[in-house]
Amino acid sequence: MKNDLILRAARGEKVERVPVWLMRQAGRILPEYRAVRNSLSGFKELVETPELACEVTLQPVDILGVDAAIIFSDILVVPEAMGVTYQMKKGVGPIFETTVRTERDAESLVIPDPNDKLRYVSDAISLTKKELDGRVPLIGFAGAPWTIFSYIVEGGGSKTFSNARKILYQNPTLAHSVLYKITQTTKTYLKAQIEAGADMVQIFDSWAGILPKKQYEEFALPYIKEICDSIDSVPKTVFSKGAYRSIAEIAKLNCNTVGLDWNMNRKESRQLVGNERTLQGNLDPCTLYAPDDALVKETQQMLEDFGSQRYIANLGHGVYPDTDPEKVKLFIETVKKHQF
What we know:
Blueprint: H1 5-11, H2 31-38, H3 43-47, H4 50-63, E1 69-70, H5 77-81, E2 86-89, E3 93-96, H6 103-108, H7 114-117, H8 119-132, E4 138-143, H9 145-154, H10 162-170, H11 172-196, E5 200-205, H12 213-219, H13 221-229, E6 236-240, H14 247-250, E7 257-259, H15 266-273, E8 278-283, H16 292-306, E9 311-315, H17 325-337
Parallel strand pairs: 1-4, 4-5, 5-6, 6-7, 7-8, 8-9
Antiparallel strand pairs: 2-3
Helix pairs in contact: 4-8, 8-11, 9-10, 9-11, 10-11, 11-13, 16-17
């Protein structure tokens, strides 16, 4: 591979410079992505068409100069393959046609064959891997079981996810049965991505922060652990947004990299995680709205806080859709040019 910086950083090997990529880099901010997206019936057509998913996955590599590609997809393809279909409504987000709130609902969930129901993702990865031709690694991903659970119980996005959290108190047995099925599906799904060519994988626990520490360690971490333990062929990253109280426990997982959101203290996180794991993050995405000199200064400070080794530069969450691509380029170039 011509540029394997991110793989070496994840494995704790020496790197000549800090690697950099952005969550949600595939699409959103690029006019080239919008041109593809606007020619289609909707978001799901783009996700489910391998040739188009490949095209928009490659765009940030070609245009922004990032050190890794991440396959263009969505975490909600997993529940859909399990039988809980969704629509992506513009300005609203995902809307599920049915919810999972009873034992009967849980029983109706299937554990699909990823080579059948999710074949389009594997095909997109295979195409992208071929087109990348070793330029940079390709990242595969999936949502963490708790985050998927939150969506399919709630029926969409929410500020509180109170329906999902209610079940944890009122019917924990039901919650565990649903989380179990999501976990089994996610394990086989990520393995299919790796077989198709993914060089590393990331688990996104987007709604980790809404749970108290005790519940996170009962209803979330054991299932992430099971997923991590099932994969040993590629580096693994766990990104649990808002799980400040559980960083030390996350660091004990069988993963290579711990992702940090922008509210997590960098030096404290390093102390809690230790030197046996790589850290990833954690610039506030809103910093990309700042004047150029301020953006450069904040990026340089982040790099100095984390150091040159065992670190992957990124934002503390996905890049926002109205971000100027030139600001993203400046962020990436600042990382690449930084001298420690």
